UniProtKB/TrEMBL annotation:
Coiled-coil features, chain-numbered ranges: none
InterPro entries assigned: GUN4-like (IPR008629), GUN4-like_sf (IPR037215), NACHT_NTPase (IPR007111), P-loop_NTPase (IPR027417)
Domain NACHT span(s) in chain numbering: 208-348
Pfam name, any one: GUN4
Molecular function GO labels: tetrapyrrole binding
Name of protein: GUN4 domain-containing protein
PANTHER family from the UniProt entry: TETRAPYRROLE-BINDING PROTEIN, CHLOROPLASTIC
Length: 815
């Protein structure tokens, strides 16, 4: 356009003028001038040069000279216009491609939408239900903490990071249940995956009712979500799952923390009603479902096609657990062909599940090195891929692998981190902390420090890096508000949970996991009055939920209900508040020592202080196990001062003596069965496991020598006073005399048979029943008859394998 106007201006300023302004021109001349003007104005491709050459040939000099400037400018325009149009063609060509791609993409999306719409309408009710159950559990959001804002998702998908968990047997491992089929015991007691148990359901009906126990963060909920997802998507018959010949089932995943109120009504619903009204009603919030067909859930349960999973028995308020356990037990018995799985923390299940327990019980094992490596590598490739818009190229994989290797190397090099990394939640937290820390600093050495760093990360560091303004001036002030809330929840001083039916003292001291929005805002307001009265409680709650994500809102209630992202965060923050309160906090800790729900709070608190006084108080109150756990936790600390070390040495003997006092009393009173049971409990706890779990070869190879010495000394010295010869060292000598070799190898069949005959564990080649016949007088007089670790490790060749290990450990400990 610019060149066009230049040419027009030149034409006006030269002899090429409009004919009307040159009256002496001939008609022919005026025609030529009009033509030249038109060419000059509108020729885009150098047409003026053609006219100029023509006039030169005709020797029309005046006209040719007049046209020369126009021809020159026109030549420039020709070059310009050519490149201009070519470039314009390129640009709009690319735009056309993009527009075409966008058009196709929109058409694909529209087609996909229409296809999904048509497919959804064509699905039957069961298929629609399975899709909703799939969507309800497909994210791995156990920690409740989001990644950086540049990631397109807050949490990875469960299938991207899930690591198969190992289970070990509990009640099925007890020998008296296998008198007729001892060979089955070894199969059940080995470390199993849940799919192997489901595969065996057809042969063993006891596996139709399974209880799975583990402490917080070991992946109980994740395991059930994994089952629900795989069954909802029908992947159990595809890929790597094809090797398991599991039954076809319809999954139902219910969270007891959200539905216990339904089960404790005066007229509670039965299981089909709970699934139809409560569970499906909750899933309709994801996508509306059609009306449930008549007796749909009932028919599935009766046919044995249901996999009903109840997560979190420990999340039921303590006062309601007996009632809930009765409901669960009754409903399980109503449908013996279906499969039921219940998860719980150990103490709640052991102490408060008062009804008939499920017929099979298992524990989730610590992550082993292979599981740890698999999780970290999967987690990092997922995050690195998300950070790059889903790109999964070799360079992305290389970066993920490099970061994963650095984290794993740090864990492997530090024993204190290896202990923590056995817990799935803590390993997840380590990975998040490691990825967020741009300086590559070392991970915290202790559990309490890891929680503190994660809280600081969520309460300020990440928000500051993103330029987000948070209320209150400092991280410590924000944490102090949450500490106050956490302790109030542990003390159970809330007024409402779902309804106003309960008085404030209803949950007194026992604590609870969930809190109504009204109570939560009230406690936040109380804390803010002390810190900064001008801050809005509602604004603080919104940021705690949306930005720090340490508090999360739960669905399925009459009105808004909140809880901490994980119970362990509530316990940690409550312990921080005890620490802040100083003497008042110590007094409250002393008062709550005997409450099972407070055990982890006390342990967190002990890690923040010099715990000598706390240990002594636990001993005074006869909470021996708690005192021992605090002592062992403190003993591993690397940063103890000289004064703390001396104080700890001062209580060491008291803890040791108290731990073995019960065993000593049983032995003195010749309560041999009780002494044998107590020996098992002492030894299983010494390796960091709980009553009902199983020893591994590694546990016995590394068994603490001082523990083994103390236990054996009591057995040998006290039994001798009563005219018996019992003890591990006595059994070790018999084992050697039978041909056993103390090199941690398994005994030969011949050695094992001789040993069992010599100790009267067998009579006429048959196992002596434990405990029915085992403690009869004719057996008790046999040298080395006891101990047998409470009968849990009784019957079969597997105990023979462990005997070879434990006697070798006795030798290396010089017992």
């Amino acid at each position: 356009m610019v060149i066009r106007y230049i040419e027009y201006a030149i034409a006006l300023s030269t002899m090429i003028q409009e004919p009307e302004k040159q009256p002496n021109s001939s008609p022919e001349k005026r025609f030529v001038q009009r033509s030249l003007a038109a060419v000059a104005r509108w020729s885009p491709l150098g047409g003026t040069s053609f006219a100029f050459a023509s006039f030169l040939l005709k020797q029309e000099w005046v006209t040719a000279i007049a046209l020369f400037p126009v021809t020159a400018v026109s030549g420039v325009w020709a070059a310009y216009s050519k490149n201009f149009t070519e470039r314009l063609s390129e640009i709009y060509g690319e735009r056309g491609k993009k527009d075409a791609d966008g058009f196709v993409e929109n058409m694909d999306q529209a087609n996909q939408f229409l296809t999904e719409k048509l497919n959804w309408r064509s699905l039957g009710f069961t298929e629609k239900y399975l899709k909703c159950q799939e969507w309800d559990c497909h994210e791995d959001n156990v920690v409740g903490m989001r990644e950086e804002d540049d990631l397109p998702v807050n949490s990875p998908l469960l299938r991207e990071v899930f690591v198969p968990l190992e289970l070990s047997g509990d009640s099925l491992a007890r020998g008296y249940e296998f008198r007729d089929r001892p060979e089955n015991r070894a199969e059940i007691c080995e470390q199993l995956q849940i799919w192997q148990l489901l595969e065996r359901v057809r042969e063993d009906n006891r596996l139709r009712q399974i209880a799975i126990r583990a402490w917080g963060g070991y992946g109980k909920t994740t395991l059930l979500k994994h089952l629900a997802y795989i069954y909802s998507t029908q992947e159990y018959c595809k890929g790597s799952y094809r090797k398991y010949q599991v039954p076809t089932l319809i999954p139902f995943l219910l969270f007891l923390g959200g539905c216990w109120k339904e089960l404790t009504k005066e007229n509670p619903p039965n299981l089909p009603e709970l699934l139809t009204d409560y569970h499906i009603g909750r899933l309709t919030k994801i996508k509306p479902l059609d009306a449930v067909p008549n007796n749909w859930a009932l028919n599935i349960l009766r046919r044995g096609d249901a996999l009903v999973m109840f997560d979190g028995f420990d999340e039921v308020p303590p006062a309601e657990r007996a009632k809930v356990s009765t409901w669960l037990s009754d409903e399980m018995r109503q449908y013996p062909e279906s499969i039921f799985i219940l998860t719980s923390r150990p103490t709640a299940y052991t102490e408060d599940y008062t009804a008939r327990k499920p017929t099979a019980s298992f524990w989730i094992q610590d992550f082993n090195p292979e599981q740890r490596k698999q999780f970290v590598e999967q987690w990092y490739i997922c995050q690195e891929r998300y950070a790059r818009g889903g790109r999964n190229t070799p360079d992305v994989e290389a970066k993920a692998k490099d970061k994963a290797e650095k984290l794993l190397a740090q864990i492997e090099a530090r024993p204190e981190l290896k202990d923590l990394a056995g817990n799935a939640l803590l390993l997840n937290m380590m990975a998040r902390f490691h990825r967020d820390n741009k300086q590559g600093a070392e991970l915290p050495q202790r559990k309490v420090e890891l929680y503190q760093d994660i809280c600081e990360l969520q309460l300020g560091r990440r928000a500051s890096a993103r330029g987000i303004f948070l209320v209150l001036n400092s991280i410590s002030q924000r944490q102090e508000v949450l500490q106050f809330v956490a302790l109030e929840m542990m003390c159970g001083r809330a007024k409402t949970i779902d309804t106003n039916d309960f008085a404030p003292e209803y949950f007194e001291v026992e604590g609870f996991k969930q809190i109504s929005e009204a109570d939560l805002l009230e406690y936040i307001e109380m804390a803010l009055q002390r810190i900064d009265p001008d801050v809005s409680a509602k604004e603080f709650l919104k940021q705690a939920e949306d930005i720090s994500e340490l508090l999360v809102k739960k669905d399925g209630h009459i009105y808004a209900v909140y809880q901490f992202a994980h119970l362990s965060f509530q316990e940690f923050l409550a312990a921080c508040e005890l620490f802040r309160m100083r003497q008042q906090g110590e007094k409250l800790a002393f008062e709550c020592m005997g409450i099972s729900a407070w055990q982890d709070v006390i342990l967190f608190y002990a890690a923040m202080i010099n715990p000598t006084k706390l240990i002594q108080e636990a001993l005074n109150q006869k909470h021996i196990d708690l005192a021992d756990r605090i002592y062992k936790q403190t003993e591993k600390r690397l940063n103890l001062s000289i004064a703390e070390q001396k104080a700890l040495e001062g209580v060491k003997q008291s803890v040791t003596n108290s731990r073995y006092q019960k065993l000593e009393d049983y032995l003195e009173n010749q309560q041999w069965y009780e002494a044998d049971q107590e020996t098992y409990k002492l030894m299983i706890r010494a390796v960091g496991k709980e009553d009902g779990q199983w020893f591994s070869t590694k546990d016995l190879k590394e068994f603490p020598c001082d523990e083994l010495l103390a236990i054996d000394k009591l057995w040998v010295e006290i039994s001798k006073k009563h005219g018996f010869e019992f003890g591990f060292s006595v059994q070790k000598q018999i084992y050697v005399e039978c041909g056993g070799i103390l090199d941690f190898s398994y005994p030969s069949s011949e050695t094992w048979e001789k040993f069992c005959d010599r100790t009267a564990w067998k009579e006429r080649a048959k196992w002596v029943d434990y405990p029915d016949q085992f403690f009869k007088n004719n057996f008790m007089s046999v040298k080395g008859h006891l101990p047998v670790l409470g009968g849990v490790v009784w019957v079969g060749e597997e105990w023979g394998e462990l005997v070879g290990v434990i006697f070798s450990r006795i030798e290396t400990c010089e017992v």
